[in-house]
Write a structure and sequence with these properties.
Blueprint (H helix, E strand, L loop, with lengths): L5 H17 L2 E9 L4 E10 H5 L9 H5 L1 H35 L7 H11 L1
Antiparallel strand pairs: 1-2
Protein backbone atom coordinates (compact mmCIF):
# COMPACT_ATOMS: atom_id res chain seq x y z
CA UNK A 1 0.00 0.00 0.00
CA UNK A 2 2.76 2.44 0.86
CA UNK A 3 5.10 1.62 -2.00
CA UNK A 4 5.15 5.03 -3.60
CA UNK A 5 5.36 8.67 -2.68
CA UNK A 6 1.99 9.27 -4.33
CA UNK A 7 0.29 7.99 -1.18
CA UNK A 8 1.88 10.81 0.79
CA UNK A 9 0.85 13.35 -1.86
CA UNK A 10 -2.76 12.13 -1.80
CA UNK A 11 -2.93 12.38 2.00
CA UNK A 12 -1.42 15.89 1.88
CA UNK A 13 -4.00 16.88 -0.75
CA UNK A 14 -6.81 15.58 1.48
CA UNK A 15 -5.46 17.62 4.41
CA UNK A 16 -5.45 20.76 2.24
CA UNK A 17 -9.00 20.00 1.11
CA UNK A 18 -10.13 19.79 4.75
CA UNK A 19 -8.43 23.10 5.49
CA UNK A 20 -10.21 24.68 2.52
CA UNK A 21 -13.51 23.30 3.82
CA UNK A 22 -13.04 25.17 7.12
CA UNK A 23 -12.73 28.53 5.35
CA UNK A 24 -15.51 28.02 2.81
CA UNK A 25 -19.01 29.48 2.91
CA UNK A 26 -21.74 27.46 4.64
CA UNK A 27 -24.70 26.79 2.37
CA UNK A 28 -28.03 25.12 3.00
CA UNK A 29 -29.85 23.45 0.13
CA UNK A 30 -33.54 22.60 0.09
CA UNK A 31 -35.20 20.52 -2.60
CA UNK A 32 -38.92 20.90 -3.15
CA UNK A 33 -41.05 18.61 -5.25
CA UNK A 34 -44.59 19.10 -6.47
CA UNK A 35 -46.63 17.39 -9.13
CA UNK A 36 -45.40 19.77 -11.79
CA UNK A 37 -41.99 21.02 -10.80
CA UNK A 38 -38.81 20.37 -8.93
CA UNK A 39 -37.08 23.35 -7.36
CA UNK A 40 -33.81 23.69 -5.55
CA UNK A 41 -33.28 26.49 -3.07
CA UNK A 42 -29.86 27.50 -1.77
CA UNK A 43 -29.27 29.77 1.19
CA UNK A 44 -25.79 31.14 1.81
CA UNK A 45 -25.28 31.58 5.55
CA UNK A 46 -21.74 32.93 5.64
CA UNK A 47 -18.38 31.64 6.77
CA UNK A 48 -17.93 29.33 9.73
CA UNK A 49 -16.04 31.99 11.68
CA UNK A 50 -18.81 34.56 11.18
CA UNK A 51 -21.54 32.11 12.16
CA UNK A 52 -19.82 30.90 15.31
CA UNK A 53 -18.75 34.38 16.43
CA UNK A 54 -22.27 35.74 15.75
CA UNK A 55 -21.17 38.31 13.15
CA UNK A 56 -23.92 37.48 10.65
CA UNK A 57 -26.90 39.83 10.41
CA UNK A 58 -29.86 37.47 10.20
CA UNK A 59 -32.43 40.28 9.97
CA UNK A 60 -31.56 41.28 6.40
CA UNK A 61 -32.89 38.12 4.78
CA UNK A 62 -36.17 36.45 5.73
CA UNK A 63 -35.02 32.97 4.67
CA UNK A 64 -31.78 33.38 6.57
CA UNK A 65 -33.55 34.46 9.76
CA UNK A 66 -35.89 31.45 9.64
CA UNK A 67 -32.98 29.04 9.28
CA UNK A 68 -30.60 30.58 11.79
CA UNK A 69 -30.25 27.45 13.94
CA UNK A 70 -29.76 25.27 10.87
CA UNK A 71 -26.96 27.55 9.67
CA UNK A 72 -25.19 27.50 13.04
CA UNK A 73 -25.61 23.73 13.35
CA UNK A 74 -24.24 23.23 9.84
CA UNK A 75 -21.22 25.37 10.73
CA UNK A 76 -20.57 23.35 13.89
CA UNK A 77 -20.85 20.05 12.03
CA UNK A 78 -18.58 21.24 9.22
CA UNK A 79 -15.97 22.50 11.66
CA UNK A 80 -15.98 19.36 13.81
CA UNK A 81 -15.78 16.95 10.87
CA UNK A 82 -13.02 18.97 9.26
CA UNK A 83 -10.96 19.09 12.46
CA UNK A 84 -11.40 15.36 13.07
CA UNK A 85 -10.47 14.62 9.47
CA UNK A 86 -7.35 16.76 9.71
CA UNK A 87 -6.28 15.01 12.92
CA UNK A 88 -6.85 11.55 11.41
CA UNK A 89 -5.10 12.43 8.14
CA UNK A 90 -2.14 13.94 10.01
CA UNK A 91 -1.65 10.71 11.96
CA UNK A 92 -2.07 8.70 8.76
CA UNK A 93 0.48 10.90 6.98
CA UNK A 94 3.03 10.49 9.78
CA UNK A 95 2.48 6.71 9.85
CA UNK A 96 2.83 6.44 6.06
CA UNK A 97 5.94 8.60 6.15
CA UNK A 98 7.55 6.36 8.79
CA UNK A 99 6.73 3.25 6.78
CA UNK A 100 8.02 4.82 3.59
CA UNK A 101 11.32 5.83 5.23
CA UNK A 102 11.92 2.47 6.91
CA UNK A 103 10.99 0.17 4.04
CA UNK A 104 13.75 -1.91 2.51
CA UNK A 105 14.37 -1.99 -1.20
CA UNK A 106 14.32 -5.68 -1.95
CA UNK A 107 13.42 -7.73 -4.96
CA UNK A 108 10.68 -10.27 -5.00
CA UNK A 109 12.23 -13.72 -4.53
CA UNK A 110 9.25 -15.69 -5.85
CA UNK A 111 10.26 -15.32 -9.49
CA UNK A 112 13.85 -16.34 -8.75
CA UNK A 113 12.68 -19.39 -6.82
CA UNK A 114 10.35 -20.41 -9.66
CA UNK A 115 13.24 -20.19 -12.15
CA UNK A 116 15.49 -22.28 -9.93
CA UNK A 117 12.78 -24.94 -9.42
CA UNK A 118 12.26 -25.25 -13.17
CA UNK A 119 15.98 -25.50 -13.74
CA UNK A 120 16.45 -28.27 -11.15
CA UNK A 121 13.72 -30.44 -12.65
Amino acid sequence: MFKSKYTLWIIAFLILTCLYNIFSIVQIEFNTVSLYSFKKFTIECGTIYDLLSNNVDFTTNKNLSMNRSICVNQAVVTLSTSVLSIIFLTFLFSYAYKIFKTKDDYEDMNTLLAILRRRNK
